[in-house]
Design goal:
The structure holds two protein chains of two kinds. Chain A has helices at about 50-55, 95-100, 110-125, 140-150, 170-185, 195-205, 235-250, and strands at about 5-15, 20-30, 35-40, 65-70, 70, 80-85, 155-160, 190-195, 205-210, 215-220. Chain A is α/β, with parallel strands linked by helices. Chain A has a domain at about 5-80 and about 155-250: P-loop containing nucleotide triphosphate hydrolases (Rossmann fold, 3-Layer(aba) Sandwich), CATH 3.40.50.300. In chain A, helix 5 links the parallel strand 7 (about 155-160) and strand 8 (about 190-195). Chain B is mainly alpha-helical. Chain B has a single domain (about 75-270), classed as MetI-like fold (Orthogonal Bundle). Chain B starts with 20 loop residues before the first helix and ends in an 8-residue tail after the last helix. The chains are: A alpha/beta, B mainly alpha. The structure holds adenosine-5'-diphosphate (ADP) and magnesium ion (MG). Chain B: Its main location: membrane. Chain B: It is found in: Cell membrane.
């Protein structure tokens, strides 16, 4: 397994604003192993979403390079799946059709696509809701559908932008377990952006701690615990306190 | 009190607490008929007591009689079908053009920059204001009616399509970008469904306006149609015929609007599906 499956080199991002430009990301360098789960944690406004948008191809870097599996990242591509904080399901389509839409430009046959959709709805435990409308789903269920949609193209990496940020604590914990299970089952390289340090250490093989204005990598914390993990493991608490101390200092 | 009755806060089962739901629904709906019934009674009384001369205001019974006569002779259906045909052709022309205009302005800032100011200026002139100029240009034949209706339909439909597209959340379009939809896929899968509610609002409003515009132009320049039936009735001092035509105009307008509303709810099943 290559250690620079996903590779960011001196990535820089600036947005033009009224009085000049806003420096959002500064000198982001990071190598991610194939199959690794990376958590990126940082306060609001430190450029986490921007970083993910660069990775998915919705924004272009102002400097530096981003590569996936040896090829430069340019524009969006089905080999990079994303789950946004707001599930972004289309309300006029059923659950099944929402996921199916992600395969609109795939070379698969119609039957294969449907099979693929149901396989992924089963993966997130929502096969029974294939014909439901998004308005009928709870926040947690919608986010599961979004995960199924993010995975249905069998991407090389899965990007998640605070996917559980809007959920209540119980549902959030449940979906974190679910995500860990899916990640173990699929073995997919995953980048999770969050402002929840507990979530970051519980799920990540490594936790990238970001600092604001401009957003840069503060440090990278190795979470040396095998999966599946137990949420109450003392080591997780240690790491969490350690990272939180970091935030308190800045 | 039965708890299943407490649904709508306004009619929380207070008025007819003892009726079963279908009957209560009927009771609620028949409220809409109370005022018309009262007006009818007033009308009748006014004629019978000779508050107004029967030459000026014919009694309801005569209007009904005229309605039936005109219907059975086929005259009413003839004028009605002419008007309907005009409004359908004109509205179809205006709708296609309005959709295209609204879509292209909604999709492209450049087209918007070129067209929107002119369009807004043109739409400030009321439909009636166009009739004299159009009469000079195309005469008073069918083309005039089509153009007047088309124009009446065009303005609200363009504006609603345009603003409906501009109101689509960027996040919906980003999803389309993530899955690399081309323009046709974006239109069909995202833009049109997302703009559909506002498109329908535009269409309903447009059709109502188009229908009114038609009757107006028929009053001014026509030898057929419901508007003409009114003019004809007035000239021959047959107010019963005028009132019959008015009733038909109102009825058709209502049916057109309700028909579109029904179509809208059918197309937007997903909006009614929340728990
Ligand atoms: N398209 C944009 N134009 C201008 N500024 C932007 C744009 N996108 C994000 N920003 C700014 O970049 C900074 C980082 O935003 P974001 O990446 O959303 O942070 P986070 O996700 O960590 O909260 C914020 O100050 C935000 O206002
Ligand atoms: Mg964010």
């Amino acid at each position: 397994m290559r250690s620079d499956f996903l590779s960011l080199r001196q990535v820089d991002k600036r947005f033009p604003v009224e009085d000049g430009e806003l420096h959002v990301l500064d000198d982001i360098s990071l190598n991610i192993r194939q199959g690794e789960f990376i958590s990126i944690v940082g306060g609001s406004g430190c450029g986490k979403s921007t970083l993910l948008r660069l990775l998915v191809g919705l924004e272009q870097a102002s400097g530096g390079s981003l590569q996936l599996d040896g090829a430069p990242i340019e524009g969006t591509d089905p080999e990079r799946g994303i789950v946004f904080q707001d599930h972004r399901l289309y309300p006029w389509l059923t659950v099944e059709d929402n996921v199916l839409l992600a395969l609109l430009n795939s070379p698969l046959s119609k039957a294969e696509r449907l099979q693929r959709v149901h396989e992924h709805l089963r993966l997130v435990g929502l096969e029974a809701f294939a014909r439901a409308w998004p308005a009928q789903l709870s926040g947690g269920m919608s986010q599961r559908v979004a995960i199924a949609r993010g995975l249905v193209n069998r991407p090389k990496i899965l990007l998640l932008d605070e996917p559980f940020g809007a959920l209540d604590a119980l549902t959030r914990a449940q979906l974190q377990e679910e995500l860990a299970r899916i990640w173990l089952a699929e073995g997919i390289t995953t980048v999770l952006v969050t402002h929840d340090v507990d979530e970051a250490v519980f799920l990540g093989d490594r936790v990238v701690v970001m600092q604001p204005r401009p957003g840069k990598i503060g440090r990278i914390v190795e979470v040396d615990l095998p999966h599946p993990r137990h949420r109450d493991h003392p080591r997780l608490h240690e790491l969490r306190s350690d990272i939180l101390r970091d935030f308190a200092r800045h | 009190m039965n708890t299943t009755l407490v649904r709508s806060p306004l009619f929380a089962g207070r008025r007819w607490p003892n009726l079963v739901p279908p009957l209560r629904w009927l009771a609620l709906k028949s409220c809409a008929l109370l005022l018309p019934a009262a007006l009818l009674l007033l009308w009748h009384t006014a004629v019978v007591r000779q508050w107004v001369s029967a030459q000026i205001l014919p009694p309801p019974s005569l209007v009904l009689e005229t309605l039936l006569t005109l219907w059975h002779s086929g005259d009413l259906w003839f004028e009605l079908s002419i008007s309907l045909q005009r409004v359908l052709i004109g509205a179809a022309m205006g709708s296609v053009l309005g959709l295209l205009l609204g879509l292209s302005m909604g999709l492209s800032r450049r087209v918007e920059a070129y067209l929107l100011p002119l369009f807004q200026a043109i739409s400030q002139v009321p439909v009636l204001g166009w009739i004299p100029l159009l009469m000079m240009l195309v005469g008073i034949d069918e083309t005039l009616k089509y153009l007047v209706i088309a124009h009446a339909v065009l303005v609200p439909l363009t504006i609603n399509t345009f603003s409906g597209i501009r109101a689509i959340p960027p996040s919906y379009l980003e999803v389309a970008q993530v899955y690399r939809f081309n323009l046709a896929q974006r239109l069909r899968r995202v833009i049109l469904p997302a703009a559909l509610p506002s498109l329908f609002t535009g269409l309903r409003f447009a059709l109502t306006k188009g229908w009114i515009a038609l009757v107006t132009v028929e009053l001014l320049a026509s030898s057929e149609g419901l508007g003409y039936l009114m003019v004809d009735g007035r000239q021959m001092f047959q107010l019963d015929q005028v009132i019959v035509a008015m009733l038909m105009v109102g009825l058709v307008g209502l049916v057109l609007d309700k028909g579109l509303a029904l179509l809208e709810t059918r197309l937007q099943r997903w909006q009614r599906q929340a728990f």
